[in-house]
Every structure is written in C-alpha cells, then in structure tokens.
Amino acid sequence: MKDFQFHRPTTVAEAVALMAGKDGAKFLSGGQSLLPVLKLDLAEPTDLISLTGIAELREIRVDGQALVIGALVTHDAVARSADVRKHIPGLAALAGGIGDPQVRNRGTLGGSVAHADPSADYPAAILALGATVHTNLRKIDAEEFFTGLFESALAPGELVTAVSFPIPKRAAYAKFAHRASKYALVGVMVALTSSGVRVAVTGAGAKVFRVSAMEDALTKGFVPEALSGITVSADDLNGDAEASAEFRAHLIGVMAKRAVAACQ
Amino acid sequence: MPTITLRVNRKNHTVECANSSLLVDVLREQLRLTGTHVGCDTSQCGACTVHVDGHSVKSCTMLAVEAQDAEITTIEGLADGNTLHPMQAAFQECHGLQCGFCTSGMVMSTTELVSRNPDPSEPEIRHWLEGNLCRCTGYHNIVRAVQTCARGSRGGTP
User: Which of B41, B128, B133 sits opposite A101 (nearest CB)?
Assistant: First the structure.
C-alpha cells in the first residue's frame, strides 16, 4: 500500500475543509471496503481523512415518520439499536447480516453508501424504503443516488452525513449470500409503505434496481404467491464464477418471495 | 515516520510506523505479538482478529494510526498469568483446533460473542463464526468449545 498523509478531524466542517483542494484525498470511515481496495493498490490516495473521530455522525434518531441514522453508525450498532428494531426491524436484520461480526463492528452505513458497491446490502434498503441520503451539501433521493457500478451522485469531496429512512408499514430483506464474503449474490428488500409497495434488488445488476412487475402484483395482494409466474429477464444481470445471470434472475424471484413471507 | 502510542494488553507502547501500516503488522513485526496471525490478508479469514475497545476487529483491515486511543487486546492478553482464559481452556478441552493457525482469531472472536450473549445457541454460534475460517476442524469442536465456555461462565458444569 502506498503511504499517505493521515488526518483525523473531529467535526464535519473540519473534515470538509481538509478535503478542499486535495484532489487525491479520500474520506476513510470504517475502512472495510476502502482498506481492501488500498491493499490491492486499486486506489492510491495522497491523503486519508478519517471520519471515525466525528461524534456528531454517530447518532440514530426518530424524526417524525423517519429513522435518521448517522453516517458513522456501524452495521452492528444499526442491528442492535432499539429504535431500529422497533421501527424498521427488517433494516436491523439486514444490517445484522452484512459481512461478519468483525466487519459489522467496523463498517459503517455512510461508508457502504458512498462506496456504492453493486453487491452491498444497504442499497436495497435505501431504494426499497425510499430513503434520502444527507450530505454536507444537500439531500439526495434514493432514486437519484446510485448511478452505476461503484458510482453515485456524490460530487468529489462531498460527504455523506446520514441516511433518513421513512418508516414503512412492513419491510423485510432476503439475501442469497456469497459463501466467503457474504456480499449479496442477490438481495431483495420488499417494503409496504404508505405510498405503495416497493421491491429493490441488489447484487444482481450494475446497481440496485426496482422491479415494477413485482410491485404491481404485490399491490394487488401482499402475499408471496402473488409473485408466482413473474420472471425477471437475465439480459442485463451480472454473471460470474459464483452465479450466472440466469441463476441470479431466478434468485430474484425466490428472494422476493422470502422477503414478502418475512413481512407477514 | 510518525510516532504513535498504542495501548495493547494493558500496556502503552510507542512505535514509529507509516500512516499506511496495518494494525496487524505493527502488532506482529514491531511489538512481536505473533500470536495474532495473518491468514488471507483479504479481510475474510479472521485469523488476525483482535479486540479494539472490546469489539472483535480484523487487524489486517484497520490502520494502526486508527487504533490510537483504543484499548487493544490480543491473544497474548487473554490469559491470567498461567491460567488460561475460559475460552482458551474450552478450546483445549474440546479439541477445538488441529493445526491451530486460526485459533487465536477464533478465541478472540468467540469471547466477544459470549460476552454479549452468555447462552448462544448452535445456530447463533455458527452465524457468529462467519468471520472466522478454519480449514481443519469442520467447526464442530469449535462450536462445542464455545458452548462449553458459555456453560462454564454461567456457573454450570463445563
């Protein structure tokens, strides 16, 4: 790994100021995605700006009809939070299934969101729940946030500060995980919200996406059987040594049914 | 090169290391605490697991500079003198190891599980062990060791 300057600010303002004018700098959160990238020399930042000293980003709070989770909250803290378990138990369960205990102890919501890994679990929750990503500059709707393979709407130097999840009536996530990494080969989050049913799929394509045919079917009847006979085309799906595109297309149907069943 | 102070096994150590130094490398190469192992170096196997403020962490996936101000415990810090930690004793009793390469990581990880959940079920133990790979035992005796330790720490007969 190439060496870099290391900074440890204690406020968002300080972190953003440190980033200004440093084209080669990166924010470092829990490091569970970024450090493996650096170890493979896939990125060579000149500066790492560690966010772990910023206490203001560690808060979980209920704000009206939404649950607002700070960017620095670890997956383990989301999984164990009494507020998350009470208001969106499906989100707590999703967080408790990310990676493994050691990864959940370090990895953070903001880091995962900013990394925009196409196989990460959180993007499914963000899109299915219609969440809003808060940054130091603005608020970005779920629909606009994930733009492609490891690409998001974040501008260079823009910092994710929190994610606001509207509290659904019911929601659950089902994942077919990679055996070693626990990343989603296919993960499906189904949410019954006040504005309708939303089905979001991660792991299968270049970025998280919704399946409108499933949403329409579940609007007529929110039971697993409603999804029988609905197929998803394998055309634009990922195929690799772990799973072909056709297998992923099949898994979307299976995981969606399991998620709906878990909502009952 | 920057100088940092790490608190490891209840003692402060001041070391010179690059900003890019991984915690595991400082522990092994500079502090000579070689009980923490490097298996995969790709954040999957868990052989390098140590405790940082009581939480199990893969020390190959954490910068040493990030561990300043934290209380770090390695496998060398678990035993009380010549008395093994109950989890170490349970691994010995249940034959929860063969080659032993993964064992220090297994012990560090599972001590956190039992501190959180004094009565873990077998599925809970197996779910927890997803961060630790063993290529010898098939995990059965590791699960038994964790159950044995948990029973002992609840005051029952190990």
Answer: B128
